[in-house]
Q: What sequence folds into this?
């Protein structure tokens, strides 16, 4: 299973603030921790989970040990960064945000309900990829329920997989 890890600049974990050993001509050093979901362990995501964890830097990560597969993430006791996904750059982040903003607008415009006023404008790209994706998924959910939310997130995953040239998304 290919897995991915989003980090902020300089290899810093988004939530943990752990400084990951970055790959430099080869895989980074192994990191170990007791695997307890949302508490400790090496947390990563599959291709289908990408829209839920967006951050400035994306890496492919190798996991080792028993892998606890959760609905939107995976957790293992060991992991190491294999390579940075350079295709996740400023241009790709902007394109993703614009795609989600357009999609949110399409969804909102297709409904006679009040959600039409929820549609973001192209200027809202400054909110960034995580919020743009969430807005589109939330509008889809408002119109069609939780299944529509999941479908919208899968649409976003498929876009990311194709644009970044990485693994296949799976059904959530």
A:
């Amino acid at each position: 299973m290919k897995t991915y890890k989003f980090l902020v600049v300089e290899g810093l974990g988004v939530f943990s603030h752990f400084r990951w050993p970055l790959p430099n001509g080869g895989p980074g050093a192994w990191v170990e921790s007791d695997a307890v979901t949302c508490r400790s362990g090496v947390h990563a995501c599959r291709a289908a989970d990408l829209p839920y964890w967006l951050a400035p830097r994306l890496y492919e990560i190798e996991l080792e040990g028993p892998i606890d597969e959760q609905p939107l993430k995976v957790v293992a006791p060991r992991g190491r960064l294999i390579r940075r996904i350079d295709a996740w750059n400023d241009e790709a982040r902007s394109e993703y945000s614009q795609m989600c903003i357009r999609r949110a607008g399409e969804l909102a415009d297709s409904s006679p309900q009040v959600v039409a006023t929820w549609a973001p404008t192209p200027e809202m790209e400054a909110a960034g990829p995580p919020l743009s994706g969430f807005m589109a998924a939330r509008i889809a959910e408002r119109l069609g329920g939780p299944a529509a939310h999941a479908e919208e997130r899968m649409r976003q995953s498929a876009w990311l997989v194709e644009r970044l040239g990485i693994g296949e998304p799976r059904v959530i």
Summary: The chain has two domains: 3-84, 90-164. The longest helix spans residues 90-109. Residues 3-84 form one domain.
